[in-house]
Amino acid sequence: MLRLNPGWLDYSLLALYFVVVLGIGVVARRAVGTSADFLLAGRSLPAWVTGLAFVAANLGATEIIGMAANGAQYGVATVHYYWIGAIPAMVFLGIVMMPFYYRSKVRSVPEFLRLRFGNGTHVLNAGVFAVASVLIAGVNLYALAIVLNALLGWPQFLGIVVSAAVVLVYIGFGGLGSAIYGEVLQFFVILAGLIPLAIVAVRSVGGFGELTRRVTDSALGPQGLHAWQGTGVGNVTNPIGANWIGIVLGLGFILSFGYWTTNFAEIQRALSAKDRSASQRTPLIAAFPKLFIPAVTIIPGLVALIAIPNFGNSDSGGLEYNDAIPALIGQLLPEGVLGIAITGLFASFMAGVAANVSSLNTVVTYDLIQPYLAKGHSDRYYLTAGRWVTVAGVVIAIGTALLASSFNNIMTYLQSLFGIFNAPIFATFILGMFWKRTTGWGGFSGLASGVAAGTLVFILAQAKVLTFGSDIEVTFYQAGAAFFVDLIVTVIVSLVTAKPAPERLAGIVYGVPGADGVVPTLRQPREAVWWRKPVLLGGIALALTVVLNILFA
Asked: For the chain, percent helix, then strand, then coil, each to nearest 5?
């Protein structure tokens, strides 16, 4: 059984972290006077704060536990989730989509759909997002419970409840501002814990040369050290089990763009920026640390595979893939450094839970309660409602954490959720932003059909009715089915229903002027200094992505 052995110094560091995080919540509460302060942080934050919060919000169980698990199970090909499955979409979000979001003055992603398509699509998207948020928050609670079990021997359920209580306190106090400033702190704490682990892990197996040799001799084989080799059409030998078309279209386009351009848990950070330029730069600033995070997640997964006997064979008594990071922390790090690493894990999981809970309370309050369930109340009423939604979201996430515990690799589970919920929303958004003929009924029908299609592929794959090269490949086809079904249904229904009224398109569709006479285009505003130019920042990030893909092909 996995167990860590922390000393008094390790516990002291962890306790200090919790005091600071809770202190951030208490301090942030003083700045909360309205629902906008609680749910949107007053839209006053600088780009460097929102940029670090943007990437930290994604550094939850998906990155730390999930990507290390994928590194052990699928090898270097896991980098596709970063260099193909993140950076291009983050650049697209910053350069193309954030101007639409920020200019429309929406408070959430579903609210943008209300402006474009009407109430039906608005309610559907808000409901879908709410379900996805509590499911993903549950994954992070489950991951944190794994660490508490290894650290203190606590039962899984107790660990989940205690973790949820801590997140509830500091988000309940300070809202989004508390979450964002907490995420900036957590970003540095996470790296302080993971960088020493990656270095010590490689040294423990004799350096990179020995790591390469032993991975080649492992079940992954030589292909486990390459991202693109063995992905030819009709000749798939890479452990990821998918050809390059599936990787580029399924992950690089549909899953990636669907997640990064429509997931409010991330976009909320950009919307809290102080102006349009800062909102555009938020995902672009986040792209640079995102490029290099594989070094501290995938490498430990590879080390765990070759250094821990019977790793990944839980049916035979071995540790699960999800245990890679906690197991290495317990085996390799001395007192003090162990405490930093444990604190980094806590920080990452809390960031993931906080990101989803803080976006959930905004969507439920502004997109369901205020316009439909409780109209015309005072701002104080909605501030209180936001706090109660936070409580309810955390309680429901406790239940979804138990669901996540049934998956050996939580990264695959998360990608399944993204394929079901985010991929169809992306299709609806792209048509709505760039095709004036898209109608309200088209958007609603397409979104509902896309979610149903993604869910159907997931169910058929789980029931073994459909078979694929790997669990990861299943997520590519889920996303593809959801995206293209949404696209086709939206187009067909839009063509047979009445054209949308011109005023519904004003200022939120490409090329259609708003009430102020300004026409939304992709033209970028002039910036005085180079590091504020979104196109230049995005170009540098994409160039680095190409170089890294070539080096690890």
From this structure: 75, 0, 25
Which of 210, 221, 212, 262 has its CA nearest to residue 100? 262
CB under 8 Å to 156, separation ≥6 — which residues?
142, 145, 146, 149, 405
Which class for 353: exposed (0-12), middle (13-18), buried (19 or more C-beta within 10 A)? Answer: buried
pTM listed for this prediction: 0.85
Say which DSSP state 370 is in: I
Asked if 455 and 420 touch (Cβ cutoff 8 Å), the reply is yes
407: left (phi over 0), alpha (psi -120 to 50) or beta: beta
State pLDDT tens for residues 175-212. Answer: 666 677 777 888 888 888 899 999 999 999 999 999 99
What is the tens place of the pLDDT at every residue in 347-403?
777 777 777 787 888 889 989 999 999 998 988 898 888 889 888 888 888 888 877
- Backbone phi, psi, residue 527, to 5°: -120, 145
Q: Tell me the Cα Rg of the chain.
A: 22
CB neighbourhood size of 113 (10 A): 29
Residue partners of 86: CB distance under 8 A and separation at least 6:
256, 260, 287, 290
Q: DSSP character for 526?
A: P
